[in-house]
Structure formats: structure tokens, C-alpha cells
Amino acid sequence: MRRLAPTALVITGALALAGCGGSGGSGDTGPELSVSASYMPQPITGEMAAGFFVLTNKGGTKDELTSVTSDAAGSVTMHETVGQSMREVTSLDVPAHGQLVFKSGGNHLMFEKLKGKPKQGEKVSVELHFAKSDPLTVEMPVKSATYNPATGH
């Protein structure tokens, strides 16, 4: 039995160390991103549209939304509203264990040079690009121009 004790200690130690690998022992996970409540109000003109959604990060590491693309528009830009002023930004933080909310009167997408006028009931495909995570594709439903979601965004 005495010969087995040192072997058991070595095996137990190896198993304990194996459980600590990969995250530096901090227990934090990388970003875990998902999108919910996405929509585009039906555009009034055929040139511009807005887009809104909630980007949730359940992971223990923050990420950064660096760009948005869509085949439906010549360009898609990100904007934030500070006070009464809207300004274009090149990136937005997605906090660890938090959300980045795009809502009317706050952060939002601007679809410029639309390639067609999206109509209520259709969907617009959008690809979100991040500093750390793989891109996410979102099928954004087109709602009425006056749509006001129950979530308040």
C-alpha cells in the first residue's frame, strides 16, 4: 500500500493541474455574444434606414463591436447619441457579463445608400464584426415605421 500512495499523489496532482489550464486560473471565460430584439423600422425614404438590437455578452471578457456590414446597403455605420447630438463611432465596447443596447435615441445603426427599400415583414441580413469574437450574422426583421418595442429599445 505504501508504494501506491506516491503514485496516487502524482495522479491527483496532475488531474488538479489539468483543471487549471487555459484561463490563467482566473475562471474568466472569453466573450460569449448573442443578439436579441433586432429590428429595422421600415425606412421612410429609399436612401437611409436605422437598425436596433441588444448585444449580450455572457462571457467574462469584454469585446468590441468594430464594424457592421450588410448586402442591403452601401455602408452601415454605428452611431451613439450624447445629449442631443448624434455622432458616428468606429467601435463600441461590449462589456463582460453585460449588454450593448442599440435603441431609438441612443446607440443605433445607420444603413446608407440602400440597395432597395426594405418593407415591413421582410428581413435584412447584417453581419457584426468584433475585435475578439467571430462575426455574428443577424436576420433583422423590418417593422412598421412607428414600431415601438415592448423592451423599450
Describe this structure in words.
With 153 residues, the protein is mainly β. 10% of the residues lie in helices and 47% in strands. It has one helix and ten strands. Strands 1, 2, 3, 4, 5, 6, 7, 8, 9 and 10 form a ten-stranded mixed beta sheet that branches. A hairpin with a 5-residue loop joins strand 9 and strand 10. The protein is globular and about 45 Å long. The N and C termini lie far apart (67 Å). About 14% of the residues have low confidence.
Can you give me a brief rundown of this structure?
The chain has 153 residues and is mainly beta.
What's the N-to-C terminus distance?
A: 67 Å
Secondary-structure content class: mainly beta
User: Strand content of the residues, in percent?
Assistant: over 45%
Number of helical regions: 1
